[in-house]
Amino acid sequence: MTAALQTIHVGGEWRPALTGATREIIDPVDATTFALVAEGDVQDTDDAVAAARAAFDDGAWPRTPVAERAALLRRVAALLERDRERIGALESQDAGKTLEEGRVDVDCVRDAFLYFADLVADESEGRVVDAGSDEIRSVVVHEPVGVCALITPWNYPLLQASWKIAPALAAGNTFVIKPSEITPLTTVVLIELLLEAGLPLGAANIVTGPGGTVGARLAEHPDVDLVSFTGGLVSGTKVARAAVDSVKKVALELGGKNPNVVFADSCATAEGFDTAVDQALNAAFIHSGQVCSAGSRLIVEESLRERFVAELARRAGLIRLGRGTDEGVECGPLVSAAQLARTEEYVASALGEGAVLRAGGERPAGPGYFYRPTVLDRCHRRMRVVREEIFGPVLTVETFRTEEQAVALANDTEYGLAGAVWSSDEDRARRVAARLRHGTVWINDFHPYLPQAEWGGFGKSGIGRELGPSGLAEYRETKHIYQNLAPRPVRWFAGTTAKDQA
Length: 502
Fold this sequence. Notes:
Elements: E1 8-10, E2 13-15, E3 22-27, E4 32-38, H1 42-58, H2 66-82, H3 84-95, H4 99-121, E5 127-128, E6 136-144, E7 147-151, H5 157-170, E8 174-178, H6 185-196, E9 204-206, H7 211-220, E10 226-230, H8 233-244, E11 249-253, E12 259-262, H9 270-285, E13 297-301, H10 305-316, H11 337-352, E14 356-359, E15 374-377, H12 384-387, E16 394-400, H13 403-411, E17 418-422, H14 426-435, E18 440-443, E19 462-463, H15 468-473, E20 476-484, H16 498-501
Parallel strand pairs: 7-8, 7-10, 8-9, 10-11, 12-13, 12-17, 13-16, 15-16, 17-18
Antiparallel strand pairs: 1-2, 3-4, 5-6, 6-20, 11-19, 14-15
Keywords: NAD, Oxidoreductase
Active site: 253
Organism: Streptomyces narbonensis
């Protein structure tokens, strides 16, 4: 237990919080405590930033050759594969997801480290710019930003950490990471793997603690050069405001309210209908809907609505809830009592505004933070449940009659993270996809992503991109080096004497 409390890592040393404060980590399946972590505060954060600053300014990592940085990221990927079962099970217990989801998360984290390792290893030493003269050498190079503050959410703690840590290290930065105080455990393990892989001490630092103190201090700290935050809109705007005074780089991923548009022609065959319904379930209820890209808004063509929603509701009622490591369980609990209460409040609000309950709408008997997958029919755009991100297993149903109406509904949101269109008409599907104002658009699919493709959103879904080449660029500064190979006087200013000219 003593070792478990040392979850703050600063400058190469694992330690408890300076105040001695701790936090209980709750198993959402039965609401019992299963771990204790250190509860850091402002002084712990300042110490971590100072360690990262020293490691960047005077340490080895920013000056490590690219090939060696890439090799370390590959070693981390190998360690993740070695410990896949252990880390997947811990992610399952900490976040409440199924064991298979935990395993998949570990695989995706491994892939992120491999992708950024390959990306930097394959780069040239800079982009040569033609200055129009053989006497000029002009090149654009990329350098690390410096000290990065990484703030991650509770729903995908390990995955979101990797989306930030892998490119930050690939670019040569040092960092301080603050995982969610609700689900910090696998991020602590990831720091251990980085150290085992040989990362120089001080390059990776972690402070476990609340967002209101640790996160806020990281965002405002003058020695932090970049803050990357993934989480809710309200917290994200606070981070952006706190970063203003020091004019640091800011990257924000703030969630979404994601449309899943289903045209009737996609369901013209039995196979097409089965696929579209199955994917609508996956879109809405994977990880109990606690996904920033969850397809929580089903926008279905009016002629298909009754048949589609009836089958969707029937299957939603059959989803098996339970502990993620138990055989046959398909969906785990919500992550906390607060998230359960939030979900219940949204459903009650929707029913009060006229939504029709077709499935779920209640918590099952027994302990834990479970909530039955819920389908709300006859929804409209004025409802809070349709406009605001819930992060729970709640699917709303809206309808359209024309393609124009479908596009208008899908784009009628403050967010713009992701969306999907289902149609057997390829021209229509591509036409609609081109008009959707969302950072990722799937055609006849939902949820897959690629580490080599950018991830991020329009509107209030955030600023910047993760993954892909742009995800690496977030952690770099661009420098233009202009070298005159044959310098001579310019003679721009008057007053030069004849003797000087001679």
